[in-house]
Amino acid sequence: MTVREAGRLGGLIGGRKGGLAVKAERGVEFYQEIGRLGGQRVRDLIAAGRRMLGPRRGGRRGKNQLAPERGV
User: Fold this and answer.
1) Other C-beta atoms lying within 10 Å of the C-beta of residue 23
2) What is the DSSP string of the chain?
3) What is the pLDDT of residues 25-55, one digit of tens each?
4) Does the pLDDT at position 5 exceed 90?
5) How many CB atoms are located within 10 Å of the residue 13 CB?
6) What is the C-alpha to C-alpha distance for residues 52 and 33, in angstroms, rounded to an integer?
7) Where are the domains of the chain?
8) What is the pTM of this model?
9) How far apart are CA 53 and CA 60, in angstroms?
C-alpha cells in the first residue's frame, strides 16, 4: 500500500467513524431535525427571491428579469 492509498483509506475510515460517533451520541432524530431545518431554509430563500423579482405577468415565456438587456 502506498502512502497516498493509506492516507485516502485513513480519511474514509475516519469519516465513517465520525458519522457513527455522531449518530451514537445524538441519534437519528438529530439528522431528521437538521434535514427539516435545511429544507425550511431553502424554502425561505426561494420565497425571498420570488418576492424580490415581483409578481409574474403573462405566461411562461416573458422577459428575463435577471438579464433584461438581452430580452431573452
Assistant:
1) 12
2) --HHHHHHHHHHHHHHHHHHHHHHHH-HHHHHHHHHHHHHHHHHHHHHHHHHH----SSS----TT-TTTT-
3) 999 999 999 999 999 999 999 999 999 887 7
4) no
5) 10
6) 29
7) 27-53
8) 0.48
9) 15
